[in-house]
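Retro notes, structure queue

What went well: the backlog is down to a handful. What didn't: a couple of records were mislabeled last round, so from now on we paste the full input next to the output in the thread. Example, using Hsp20/alpha crystallin family protein from Dokdonia sinensis:
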Amino acid sequence: MTLVKRNQTAQLPNLLDDFLKADWFGGTSNSFAMNTPAVNVIEREDSFSVQVAAPGMKKEDFNIELDNDMLSISAEQKTENDQKEEGKYTRREFSFSTFKRNFNLPDTINTAEIKAEYVDGVLHVELPKREEAKTQPKRLIEIS
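Corresponding output:
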């Protein structure tokens, strides 16, 4: 146990920080925090690409839904140790993680052609643009 000098006027924030940061059993993990993966969105001439960093998951853990112009990417992963061992546990941790990210899609997306793949811990979702939304080449307009 370490001794920490605290500012008496700011007691409540310190108590909340201790509650939300520390693992009560002496570890360093934060079992109370939500784990939301980082997302990159890349715009290209003919598409958008959404990259979700989710290492350690399988493609079966993901659920991608499209409702009107709302793209929802969610995942649920349970890890349980089913081994039967003799004795009693001094500490046993079950892992359960879930997240959900929503994206409003612009009208320029061709929703019928959306594709997704999971490679090396990153979920890639390709959102192709409609033909009329793609960048048109520069052209000369003749004056009549």
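Agreed that this is the format going forward. Reviewer comment attached to the example: The domain at 34-80+94-132 is CATH 2.60.40.790 (Immunoglobulin-like).
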